[in-house]
Amino acid sequence: MPEAERLDRFIARANAAYYATHDPFADFTTAPEICQGFGECLGLWAAVAWDQAGRPPHPILAEAGPGRGTLMADARRAIRAVAPEFAAAVALHLIETSPRLRAAQASALGDGAAWHDTLATLPPGPIFLLANEFLDALPIRQFVRRGAGWTERHVRDGAWVERAAADPPATCAWPAAEGTVVECSEAATGFVAALARRIAAQGGAALLIDYAAETPNPAGSLQALRAGAPADPLEAPGEADLTAHVDFPALADAAREGGAAVFGPVPQGMLLARLGLPARIDRLAAGLPAPRAAVLRAGARRLLAPERMGVLFKALALCHPASPTPPGFAP
Ligand code: SAH
């Protein structure tokens, strides 16, 4: 009988294999792939954050989990057009573990980017970091309420195995019905805490966009997409994309403990509206033939509309404690 593997280790292994061997965009789409205005708005957010920070020299423009490189290509184009001084000053650094997606990013972005497996190897300096649907791809642990205590989920031969929980997270102290699943992601909180410490010590800002329901699902949020359709997350590791909802309150706590000022989360639709996406789309659409303008508007609506991606997705900002409120986060 093989050893049971803790869920977070199973997910880390499965997703590394998946992202190394598959085109994830055959299975799902993301905001930057839906509308060019998404990356443009985020790029200009970074430029304004740099300006608000007093235009420190040698800024780093970074992205975690850049996918096909579309967000950063759109961001850089907007930055070059609107904030040429930021464009001239920045060095581009990408955090990406998949060799396959690194190649896609290189062809979208051309020369001039440096790649890293983790945040830890980026050079020092003020960092302006963007991340969309990165944290949801990081491993989670799951704890299950059993009797008066908690078990932790492991995986063996495609099936769940529960073991007595050695170190359940603090949220397990709350009252919970039998069978309730509580999740935590040490990978996500660890990333955000390290980012916050870096921003507090060396300056910069970060904009993290991901999805989370208003209230946690008592059955947990781990999901698998295989060939574009929902699948059993345990069945074929490396063949499906495994994701989980992001725990924004836990991330905000980790960021504060790391010493950053935290803003949000605000709904994605509200952030993009405040950053001027509707006006940008009107400008772009005015120069396009009617069918292409309609496609552009439909894409923007999908990102903005509360019943589409406008509310399920949320944005959290981390800033240096001396910086003012970043664009889009003023109440
Ligand atoms: N931000 C992109 C892609 C989202 S998919 C978009 O919005 O389209 C998740 C991305 O995170 C992929 O690029 C994937 O390879 C990367 N990724 C997943 N786990 C990672 C890890 N542990 N370290 C670095 N990158 C990771």
What does this structure look like?
The chain is α/β, with parallel strands linked by helices. It has a single domain (about 10-140, about 185-320), classed as Rossmann fold (3-Layer(aba) Sandwich), CATH 3.40.50. Helices cover about 40% and strands about 25% of the residues. Strand 6 (about 140-145) and strand 7 form a beta hairpin. The longest helix is centred in the first third of the chain and has 17 residues, at about 35-50. The radius of gyration is 20 Å and the shape is globular. The mean pLDDT is about 95. Bound molecules: S-adenosyl-L-homocysteine.
In the CATH hierarchy, the third-tier topology is known as: Rossmann fold
- In CATH, what is the class? Alpha Beta
Percent helix: 25-40%
Q: Domains counted in the coordinates: how many? A: 1
Strand content: 15-25%
What is the number of beta strands? 15
Series of secondary-structure elements, N-terminal to C-terminal: EHHHEHHEHEEEEEEHEEEEHEHHHHE
Cα-based radius of gyration, to the nearest Å:
20 Å
| Intertermini distance | 56 Å
Name the assembly state: single chain
CATH architecture: 3-Layer(aba) Sandwich
- Total of helices: 12
Report the bound ligands by name, code or SMILES: S-adenosyl-L-homocysteine
